[in-house]
Amino acid sequence: MDNSECTRCMHCINVMPRALKPGKEKGATVCIGAKAPILDGAQFATMVIPFIKVSKDNEYENVIDVIEQIWDWWMEVGKNRERVGETMQRIGLPTFLKVMEVEAMPQHVKEPRSNPYVFWKEEEVEGGWERDVQAFRKKHAA
């Protein structure tokens, strides 16, 4: 197994329980924004941080710091009676991740090609967002 590709989903351990076992690293995954309204149905949380190392020795300080950072952001940006997940949806995941100082990761994408979030910034895209249609057609002419 390639540990650099591990997303800590535990699928391989569930499939091969006698061949594999959880590692020595203990941690937590931070998911935010789940709710179950009657009219809309259950909504899953957004996984913000895939893995944070935690231990009893540091009394989960890393997780507490993340929660406090989210709480402070929500108190500033959130509207009256708006939940954290609703604020995240209104503002957008890329903006939320930027505020949380978290890099976009493959684990943030729910499904290929159906995730509504765009993580590219205009300066990262060659030529920016605005493209010349005529130049594109000339370049890709058959």
From TrEMBL:
<protein>
    <submittedName>
        <fullName>Nitrite and sulphite reductase 4Fe-4S domain-containing protein</fullName>
        <ecNumber>1.8.99.5</ecNumber>
    </submittedName>
</protein>
<dbReference type="InterPro" id="IPR017896">
    <property type="entry name" value="4Fe4S_Fe-S-bd"/>
</dbReference>
<dbReference type="Pfam" id="PF01077">
    <property type="entry name" value="NIR_SIR"/>
</dbReference>
<keyword id="KW-0411">Iron-sulfur</keyword>
<feature type="domain" description="4Fe-4S ferredoxin-type">
    <location>
        <begin position="1"/>
        <end position="25"/>
    </location>
</feature>
<dbReference type="GO" id="GO:0046872">
    <property type="term" value="F:metal ion binding"/>
</dbReference>
<dbReference type="InterPro" id="IPR006067">
    <property type="entry name" value="NO2/SO3_Rdtase_4Fe4S_dom"/>
</dbReference>
<keyword id="KW-0560">Oxidoreductase</keyword>
<keyword id="KW-0004">4Fe-4S</keyword>
<dbReference type="GO" id="GO:0020037">
    <property type="term" value="F:heme binding"/>
</dbReference>
<keyword id="KW-0479">Metal-binding</keyword>
<dbReference type="InterPro" id="IPR045854">
    <property type="entry name" value="NO2/SO3_Rdtase_4Fe4S_sf"/>
</dbReference>
<dbReference type="GO" id="GO:0051539">
    <property type="term" value="F:4 iron, 4 sulfur cluster binding"/>
</dbReference>
<keyword id="KW-0408">Iron</keyword>
<dbReference type="GO" id="GO:0016491">
    <property type="term" value="F:oxidoreductase activity"/>
</dbReference>
